[in-house]
Amino acid sequence: MTPNKTPSFLHTLHDKAMAFLRWVMPACLAFSLLPGLAQPVVGSTYKDFLPMGGGASVALPEGAWLSSHNSTITRTGYIWETYTLKNTQVDARVPFLVVRQATGSVRWGNTNCQSSTANHFLVNQHGTQANQLINKCSRFFAMGNFDNWRNVSAWTNATDKEWWLDVVKGFEEPGKSFKSSMFLAELSVQQFNGKGLRVEAFILPPKGIGAGQFRDAVKAGDPRPEQTMLDTWASIYIESMQQSYFNKKPQPIMALAYPVNAVAQASTPSTPSTPSALSAPAAAPVTTTPPAPPAVTVAVAPAAVTPVKIEPAPAAAVKPAPAAVVASVTAPAKTEAPTAAPKPLPPAAPPVAAAPDTAAQLRLDQERKALDEEKRKMAQQLEAMTQMLAKLQKENAAAAAAAAAATAKAKDEAASLAQAEAAAKTPVTYANRKALVIGNDLYTDVPKLNNAGADAEAMAKSLEAVGYKVYKHLNLNEKKFKQAVRDFRQQLSGGDEVLFFYAGHGVQLGNANYLLPIDVKGDQEDQVKDDAILLQKVLDDLEEKKTKFALAVIDACRDNPFKGKGRAIGGRGLAPTSAATGQMIMFSAGSGQQALDRLGDNDKERNGLFTRIFVKEMLKPGLSVDRVLRNVRNEVVRLARSVGHEQTPALYDQAIGEFYFKQ
């Protein structure tokens, strides 16, 4: 017996399926983790760029940045999401950074660069104005002692305090102090009624000068070489923010190349600026006084005395000293004059010049060379920064121009679309579609009606929407009513599709139905017949014009308007009628029935029950006219019965072929 073998293609299919699962499962897991990695995570370290979610990012200064704290500040209509970061690189020029993004529509107005504060310096709007779609602003502040400044809980300005109180928690380093003076660079890019991004960078001042002294020199017009570098660096950062965050094209920035002290610069006697929240970050004023130079005390220690044993030298080795010298050394001092004059001493040897301090000179030369090298590197860095800035400005200008062009194109397309939609909404009027619409409410001698005029308005609007040329009249007296019918008859020609709608009082006299003008008297039946409009006459006029299709819709089946006259003229409702070939006739209620205006006291509709349903069904596409009329009748019956009333619209159909209100 041959064992059963699985076909080879099933093995292949199984292997491919397993390989797919091995690939897709990690991929699904990775995608599931993406939202958590989209924005800065406390405890994570970032380099070069900080992810901000949705493909946006912010370039980071040189170093390795630890995300130390996240917080939020709520404003009207939007929220500032704030991320505090610490640079873990030793002796970093930018030790701390705060990145804030606004979620929601930021309040748009004057930029911080236009504020009146005297504390900021190196203020730059980067070619933007407050009324433009993009605002840019960079400015610097000086603080004398960073440790004192970040004691935000002691601040008295409530707005400034709120802006920084939770943020500075990310600056804390237990057991460490940071008493350096510091620059605070505030960099902002903001869209009109849209996103906002702010970076607040804490920067060490150049070597040998405090932040306050640097600020004062800038304001006094005595710039240092580092001033241009700081200003250019801020400009590059601003352009990078626009590209990386708003355009979602990551753009790195350059490092600050000027030298700083290995240990942060000591406090300066200047008073730091105090920016305010939103318009400026808050800084608590700190005044420090430089320490007096220490007194110098030189202590001389007593010399140590060690007894020395002197051995006599061999006789041959000892030369006798001159008598005079021996006498001067060994002879005891005498007060009396010598008996003989001493011999003159030999002339003193000329002084020998001291050897030059070659070590000090070498040190000065080395310092001079180092300074020259620092200046050379700064010049090279500044040149590179200038070139990068020009490149970024060109790219952002091109992107802005492209965005403006796209916006203009979108506006043009939107305008064209709006015109097209308006044209589509504007009904096309067909030459062979004509309608006479009459609504009578304001009767003078019989009870007034509430809905007839509104019914005529609604019917006219719906007929226009499906292409009818509508002749609408409201509250016609006898003369104007008859004139309107004659004028409409003159507009008709063979082959037209015609609709006649009447809302108002109607009455049955004998076997005929009459439509009542607003000035009808009704004292006698013959008078009513003379003054009213015979419905059959209107239908006969339509037939004589050889219309292709004619529909008469009569919403006049109400209580007898003459029943209060003391003599019964007519009865409730209208009499059954007959339609000619090519005609359809519909009454809002059957013989002897009353048409409802409302479905109860809570019914706030402006139109009577019959008309409100008719105009809705008429606008449904793809329904033939006879189907529309039957739908209207069914719905009227259902709703009338829901309030305990019998109302069945009467339909008389002699039309040939199918006709549509809306295809």
Automatic annotation (TrEMBL):
Q: Where is the Caspase family p20 domain?
A: 431-561
Q: By its UniProt entry, which Pfam families does this protein fall under?
A: Peptidase_C14 (PF00656)
Supply one GO BP term: proteolysis
Source organism, top-level taxon: Bacteria
Q: In the UniProt record, does the keyword Disulfide bond occur?
A: no
InterPro entries with a match to the protein in the record = Caspase-like_dom_sf, Caspase-related_regulators, Pept_C14_caspase, Pept_C14_p20
What are the coiled-coil residue ranges? 364-409
Question: What SUPFAM superfamilies would the database entry show?
Answer: Caspase-like
- GO MF, any single term: cysteine-type endopeptidase activity
List the residue ranges of the region (Disordered): 266-285
Keyword list, A-Z: Coiled coil
Name of the protein in question = Caspase family p20 domain-containing protein
Gene source species:
Limnohabitans planktonicus II-D5
